[in-house]
Amino acid sequence: MKARFSPLSLRGLSIALVAVLLSASAALAQSSDAGPFTALSGVMLLFAVVFGVGCYVYMALALQTIATKTSTANEWLAWIPIANLFLMLSVAKKPMWWFILFLVPLVNLVMAIMVWMAVAEARGKPNWWGILMIVPLVNLVVPGYLAWAD
């Protein structure tokens, strides 16, 4: 059984999020002492939240597609924030106890590179694609390439 969201429920969720953020920024903008700075802060916050949600949806879709193409069970785990690490470990065929290493600062960077290298190999791509995950902005392209490039 696959859990699916209808487009109407996702649209309703996005509209509710935007309404809450706009009302919060409008409430902050009514302060008489800060003026335009507060309004600008609210707009910047709204942009950051929308950008963050967009990146999260993109990464979850890419990871779910990678799991589907590698015939990994429970691809829906891509949408759950901590559980998606377990999904990545199972796609990469790494032991589940490696999750603990993701909790250690600086070690988690090395582990993420190793896991993304194994994910690239599981998709039949060169493992150096995993190393590119440490390059800013390129790390937004790599999951999409691994997911949708044949």
Characterise this structure.
Helix content is 67%, strand content 0%. The chain has one domain. The longest helix has 34 residues, at 36-69. The chain is built from 7 helices and no strands. Helix 1 (7-29) runs antiparallel to helix 2 (36-69) and helix 2 runs parallel beside helix 3. It is mostly helical and 150 residues long.
Short description:
With 150 residues, the protein is mainly alpha-helical. It has helices at residues 7-29, 36-69, 83-91, 98-101, 107-122, 128-131, 138-148.
Key traits:
about 150 residues, single chain, elongated, 7 helices, about 0% strand, mainly alpha
Q: Secondary-structure blueprint of this entry?
A:
Elements lengths: L6 H23 L6 H34 L13 H9 L6 H4 L5 H16 L5 H4 L6 H11 L2
Helix pairs in contact: 1-2, 2-3, 2-7
The overall strand count is 0
Sum up the overall morphology in one term: elongated
Instruction: Specify Rg, calculated over alpha carbons.
Output: 19 Å
Number of helices: 7
Give the DSSP E fraction (strand runs of 2 or more residues). Answer: under 5%
Overall number of domains = 1
Query: Which residues form runs of ≥5 with pLDDT under 50?
Result: none
User: Separation of termini?
Assistant: 27 Å
Name the helix and strand elements from N-terminus to C-terminus, one letter apiece.
HHHHHHH
Structural class: mainly alpha
Q: Give average pLDDT, whole number.
A: 86
Largest sheet: none
Helix content: 55-70%
